[in-house]
Amino acid sequence: MSDPLPSENHPPSWEGHHVKTDTETALREAMERACDYRGDVTIHLKTGEQVLGYVFDRQEGTPHPHIKMYVANQSDPFMVSYRDITEVEFSGEDTAFGRSWEDWANKWQKPQMN
Predict the structure, then answer these.
(1) How many other C-beta atoms can be found within 10 angstroms of the C-beta atom of residue 92?
(2) What is the pTM of this model?
(3) Which terminus of the chain faces fewer neighbouring Cβ atoms within 10 Å, N or C?
(4) What end-to-end distance do the CA atoms of the chain give, in Å?
(5) Are 87 and 18 a contacting pair, CB within 8 Å?
């Protein structure tokens, strides 16, 4: 898969990327990107299991760093400990790619027609 070319307003999308979390730095960077990503990610665990969902929170400054995810068919958020993660896959569509804050703000500044 080729990466979209970055532009002045839109950096390349992470959609389709796989990130190994074999160092603490790689893990922290992957978790930051996963939390900022506007699509589902697949978290690969040391047990061989995979968790697919939307990452909405990360807690790094705690004794047990973790992320929280919304997972399909579960009403409560799912928590994953950093120590259990081996890989992060940006598997869902990047729904914000190609859109900027300015685009969103302009849309909502225009009068809404009923």
Answers:
(1) 17
(2) 0.72
(3) C
(4) 43
(5) yes
